[in-house]
Amino acid sequence: xxxxxxxxxxxxxxxxxxxxxxxxxxxxxxxxxxxxxxxxxxxxxxxxxxxxxxxxxxxxxxxxxxxxxxxxxxxxxxxxxxxxxxxxxxxxxxxxxxxxxxxxxxxxxxxxxxxxxxxxxxxxxxxxxxxxxxxxxxxxxxxxxxxxxxxxxxxxxxx
Length: 159
Ligand code: ZN
Known about the structure:
24% of the residues lie in helices and 28% in strands. The chain is of the alpha+beta class. The protein has a single domain (12-158), classed as Peptide deformylase (Peptide Deformylase, Alpha-Beta Complex). It has a 5-stranded antiparallel β-sheet with strand order 1-2-3-6-7. Strand 6 and strand 7 form a beta hairpin. The N and C termini lie far apart (36 Å). 35% of the residues are buried. The structure holds zinc ion. The site of zinc ion (ZN) has 5 residues, from helix 2. Residues 92-94, 135, 139 line the site of zinc ion (ZN).
């Protein structure tokens, strides 16, 4: 396991559409381990592969932020259902010091491959956990929190 450097804005990889993971190889397992360790070390609650410089559809998250308490790892995650709307403050490990109020679905359903179980899983999430999933999946689509704001607010944060 290793702690990896976290990519910060304005690195181009954060704006790219990440590629699907075709096969769960040893490299993917190692990457998941390193990403989890990096996330806990940074005291984050989620991390997407582009944030450590790999443009792959792979996320780790833990709403407790405490080492391996409630670690979730998903490969090729996809939101299949969303309802309700909640606006709340969000930060991002790739945007140090930036906090934005972002609107998200209150409740979602996500499917993806759990590499530990080696099979497809479907997860229902609400509130904070749903927010983390949506934030991390945004990273796979090249979106940062301020891309969810109106243009004026976005310019304000970028300067
Ligand atoms: Zn982020």
